[in-house]
Amino acid sequence: MNKRIITSLFWAGIFLLLVPGLLHAYLLMPFPGSQDLEAITFVYYLEKIVLPLRIIGFLLVLWPLWHAFAKGRLSEKITKGGMVLVCLGVFYFSDHLYRAERMFEEPQIIRFASSQSNQVPDTLLVLGVVEGSVAKAYPVNYLGYHHKVQDSVGQVPVLVTYCTMCRTGRVFSPVINGTHQTFRLVGARHYNAVIEDASTKSWWYQATGEAAVGPLQGRTLKEITYEQLTLRSWLEKYPNSLILQPDTNYLLAYDDLKRYDRLQPIDKDSTLKSDTLIRKSWVVGITVDEQAKAYDWRELIEAKVVNDLVGKTPVVVTIEPDSLSFHVWNRNLEGNVLHFESDEKTLWDRQTNSTWNWQGECVSGLLTGKKLKSIQAHQEYWHSWQQFHSPTLFWRGEKSPAPTIISEN
User: Fold this and answer.
1) pTM of the entire structure?
2) Which of 52, 144, 201, 247 would be 164's cystine partner, CB 3.0–4.6 Å?
């Protein structure tokens, strides 16, 4: 066989061994520029052909490699042998060390404890879920590493998820078309975790529960109501709650996130002004009457309580004295729209001067025993809310002008 043809076969094989896999890894991990591309459909189908292309590449390389070591000069042996070693090294990094489902493993031990035997500090943030008479709390620091915990609350299966790149917590039903699915972590697009169900192999965005590509494209996982607040606040509301305990196999990984729930990047940079909005500024986002709206976290901390109208629904957004736990309620109570005020410790309505607790219940005054209806709210980074809820209204404080409508594009 012509030596030029042999050489061409070798380099064609090396190309197939390296490039598809590298491109796949680049598009599914947060490398510079990769997450801003609209490439989820491309990488979805690329993943399906990476292995066949590698097999073809391996077959193309075999004969030229044998020829080099049997008949070639020393320089040819070093070149071709070296490239094979490069391929092996790339495989290790792209298919093992930096593969999402291996970087962020499923918990090996899922163990819960009561408040009496709990070992989790009550200052940590949790995602709290209630089904029937059963309440469970999932610490964000643990979820942030694993990205997802597949569990059940009472008799209801739940998929509890958290993506640290977006600061998005979501709880979904893992039941699709009547079948309880298991999910694997694929990687990330637009800095948000992408998961795949076992049966249809569809890819779902964690921030929305929407299938972005695959047989179920356009479908949305059923979202299960949850609250994000400190464990202390959760236990005040549900003292009999079970609390997810740390998996001792991942204590070092959890330790890397021990301050994750405290300071946002904008607070760590003294060069930024107080009204500066950056990609990782925290917001509380809600969607009511098909209208998305985000509230600047630092302004919420200062205001303590915000009375607002989203779509046609009057809402109240509150921050507890711990400056970490937040709530959003419908302030229309039996046809009467209440206006709330707050100080460092107390929440009351202006109309009756009744006092309310942080569970949305009136504990003293004319409205004692009444309860506000909760509205699902999410705390996340501004770049995430803007990406997945565009267009959106944006509130930047009581002194700011009318809310701005912001589109991702």
Assistant:
1) 0.90
2) 144
